[in-house]
Design a protein that fits this description.
two-stranded antiparallel ribbon; 6 helices
């Protein structure tokens, strides 16, 4: 019943639709985070007002509950801006951490996502020097 700060602008009716749709899926059957992410995407991405950040955040929270960590870095919102500074195309949906520069490979996928989002402007400035 609590709303994540990323979802502060979403209408309550849309969040209720998300809840109803997700209840129709066997999320616990997913063997890994990527399967969970794809299932959540299938379930809720078509709901008006639900974007890629909501899909990822929902999968991420469900993954934490189901003890499934992301294996890939999923691009959405600010994370995509940071990834573009590293040369990834805007259409990229996720990145294998092994394809990133070596310093990033010491981090988990979630930590990389945080870095790309938090430091997106710095990465963009460095890339444009």
């Amino acid at each position: 019943g609590k709303r994540h700060p990323h979802q502060r602008r979403l209408k309550r009716t849309n969040l209720q639709k998300v809840h109803q749709r997700l209840k129709q899926y066997d999320l616990e059957s997913c063997e890994n985070f990527h399967e969970l992410f794809m299932m959540v995407h299938e379930a809720i991405a078509s709901i008006s007002g639900i974007g890629e950040l909501m899909v990822y955040d929902t999968a991420h929270r469900l993954g934490a509950y189901l003890q499934k960590e992301p294996e890939y870095v999923y691009l959405h919102a600010g994370v995509r801006v940071g990834a573009r500074a590293l040369g990834y195309k805007p259409s990229t949906k996720w990145i294998n951490p092994k394809s990133l520069p070596k310093p990033y490979q010491k981090l988990s996928a979630s930590e990389i996502e945080d870095c790309l989002c938090i430091y997106k402007h710095a990465l963009h400035a460095i890339a444009n020097q």
